[in-house]
Amino acid sequence: MQLPSFMPQDWRKHQFSHNLRHIFRQMLRSRKRFLSFLFVLTFATTLLLNSLLPVLLGNDQAIAQINPQTKPQIKLLVPPLKQPVIPPRSPINQPIDKRQEIRGVWLTSNDFAMFSDRKQLSEALQQLKQLNFNTIYPVVWNSGYAMYPSTVAQEAGAQPFVYRGSEGHDIVADIIAQGHKNNLLVMPWFEFGFMAPEMSELAIAHPDWLTQQRNGDKTSITAAGEVAWLNPFHPEVQKFLTELILEAVSNYDLDGIQFDDHTSLPKTFGYDRYTLNLYRQETKKEAPADVNDPNWVRWRANKITAFMARLSKAVKQRKPNVIFSVSPNYYDFAYKQQLQDWLGWVRQGFVDELLVQVYRNDLDDYLSQISRPEIAEVQNKISTAIAILSGLRNSNVPMSRVYSQAINAQNRGLGVSFFYYKSLWGYGPETVAERQKEFQYLFRTPAPRFANRN
Predict the structure, then answer these.
(1) Which residue numbers in the chain have pLDDT < 70?
(2) Model confidence pLDDT, tens digit, residues 91-128
(3) What domain range is 21 assigned to?
(4) Are 50 and 162 members of one domain?
(5) What is the rounded distance in angstroms from the CA atom of residue 183 to the CA atom of residue 181?
(6) Which of 74, 248, 336, 385 has the most C-beta neighbours closer than 10 Å?
(7) Taken in order 399, 400, 405, 406, is the CA torsion positive or negative?
(8) Phi, psi (5° rounding) for residue 168?
């Protein structure tokens, strides 16, 4: 309606101001409605996300420590309410990450006094956790004997006794339980592989399982002393070792299993009657007298590769997420001297983790080995580390060398693992505190490793 022209000007100004205030109040009420709507929408969205996140994230288990500084913090916009009930669901079996940093150490037979005592083991593993280690490799197959109660070994006549801890407990079960408690991956280590002392119950009970050199010798000198070699081409040997390993995989909540440079055969062996007949049957030729003959080397290496492929498959069928780990020598030596084609194993896809033993005093020699193209190839596919010698009972290694080798491996994107636990700070020119301080600086921040539970 139009205002009369005769009304006073001040009244019209007053009416105009009144209209403006009315419009402002309407806008303010509309804005409050909008903000109320926005608040309700935010509230509902927050509840919805909180309900759906557990379903969307899956069920991987982190079994290594998490850095609280990097752990994401979620702040709610509204006070938390009681969460709605989520119906139970089947666990999602997601594959493990194949490229995780390894910070490991071997627990050897020299460490037996420590890991067979629950209290000492607890203190040792707590120390490793504090120093940001993430993996341990406890020995479970050494000198022809299993370090755990083994029906397979007993039935083979190889195990007249059972290893027990100081409290009569299962050593391997305790190591795994305490390792997981301290956020460490635990991968039992079948150290001796095809190797067994000549006077072990296993070698005595099954002489037909042993192979020999061309001159008839059945032993060789190794770092473990004089040993005999189980024939890796013999079906009964393969069956025994496979059943022994599957027994451990089935009976323990382990994260992986490891095989080193002894799951192989020195190139001078393979001249036993069974192997010579098999070679003649398959090639229509006699086995060469020259142990370095390329075809003879390749035939034997291929046989070991085929066995390891079947073993890995059997392990994965039993527990799909068990990490299949190998720790051989550098490739040229492993293949030519030990018939161990680990590069072929990785390329065939049945190895999940590789640790290459590079035990060197000279830094330049060490650097040349860890810079090899085959290592660069493997580390693009799976978790890869360099095995470093931290000392022996009769040969101390200064911490400066250990640290230098470890940091050079890390600078190349490689993990590290140390041989062996007691020599980390038990041997050496430095004090325990000094060596532990160097490890603390080397592993300044946590490096969590993840694995799915089977």
Answers:
(1) 1-98, 452-454
(2) 334 444 568 999 999 999 999 999 999 999 999 999 99
(3) 8-94
(4) no
(5) 6
(6) 385
(7) positive
(8) 75, 15
**Residue 422 sits in the same domain as residue 364:** yes
User: In 3-state terms, what secondary structure has residue 348?
Assistant: helix
Can you give the pLDDT at residue 454? 61
Six token digits for residue 299:
């035939």
Residue type, 123: E
Going from the C-alpha of 201 to that of each of 150, 155, 198, 205, 243, the distances in angstroms are 14, 12, 9, 6, 18
**CA dihedral sign, ordered 227, 268, 298, 230:** negative
Q: Which of 128, 249, 109, 125 shows the shortest CA–CA distance to 192?
A: 109
For 49-72, write each residue's pLDDT tens digit: 444 443 344 433 433 433 333 333
CATH code of the domain covering residue 423: 3.20.20.80
Query: Is residue 2 domain-resident?
Result: no
Dihedral sign, Cα of residue 436, residue 441, residue 445, residue 447: negative
* Strand, helix or coil for residue 281: helix
Task: Look at residues 66, 94, 122 and tell me which one is the last residue of a structural domain.
Answer: 94
Helix axes 235-251, 294-318, angle to 10 degrees: 30
Strand pairing report for 450-451 and 61-62: antiparallel
Please give the pLDDT value at position 450. Answer: 79
Tokens of 155: 């039935």
- The span from the CA of 292 to the CA of 277, in Å, is 19
Beta strand pairing call for 189-190 and 256-260: parallel
d(CA 170, CA 449): 26
Q: What is the pTM (predicted TM-score) of this model?
A: 0.80
Q: Rounded distance, CA 253 to CA 417, Å?
A: 22
User: Whole-angstrom Cα distance, residue 344 to residue 341?
Assistant: 5
Find the helix or strand (DSSP H, E) in which 48 lies.
helix 9-57
Sheet strands side by side (includes 415-419)? 185-186, 135-138, 103-107, 415-419, 383-389, 353-357, 323-327, 256-260, 189-190
